Amino acid sequence: MKDKIRIGAFISGGGSNLQAIIDACESGKINGKMVFVGADHPQAKGLARAERHSIPRFIVDYGSIIGRYRRDPRNISVPLDFDPEAIRAKQHLFHADADPARVEGFFRTRAAAEAALLHEMAAYPFDLLVLAGFMRNLTPYFIDRVNTDPDHPRIMNIHPALLPAFPGVDGYGDTYRYGCKIGGCTVHFIDYGEDSGPIIGQRAFPIEEGESLDEVREKGLKEEWKLYPECIRLFSEGRLKLVRRDVSNQDHSGPNSAPRERVHVQVLK
Ligand code: GAR
Question: Which ligand 1 atom lies nearest to the CA of residue 20?
Fold first, then answer.
């Protein structure tokens, strides 16, 4: 039997996905062990779930860091190895014409928060970090310090929509309000954009006439609880391989937006 993979999780909310992953580890469906749970605010309800399973927990309060910065930018200290130019060149979260002060504030506050996360996590070596309802975008500052091997990314996210449709903070709500007949959820590795990284797995479900948004969310979550453990299991078995595909002559999304290369996840048999 191979060693269990060590899984860390970040949460912001109720943590039902966290629970599904903990349960899958405990039942042996995933050959893994949850080694820490981090939250971006102290009220995250999922922290109690981690406590119930005696999993180490920590909180980095993004709201208080951002609030202190807004009162006076000198209130926060950015890490010494924070390079704003390099981060801005890599990131895909803001367009080139975005307000520079806003962009600067975003990356300075996030670097401060992310350095605190990295500091907390240093006590718990891990193989995979799962974002389980974590409602913060991670920046290249953090991502590059976790993903040290470009061929083996190790930060996964679950998103409540069939990406690339409806990235952002309310995937089920956006799907529902658009009038889609099919909803779904996606697990992907994270990259420097918002919900734009290589897709690992997806599950879909029908949206019936007359269903409420709450009913759609409920259906979606039930799919998430199956999809996320399944994708983590594939990771734990070493079955997720990144492949780079040249799509420069086949992309029809517009002359300036065409990516030359897309990174796909191949699931090995
Ligand atoms: C889930 O629906 C998850 O897909 C979503 O938040 C919910 C968290 O539920 N995540 C995002 O929207 C990330 N951008 P949970 O706390 O019960 O797992």
Answer: 18
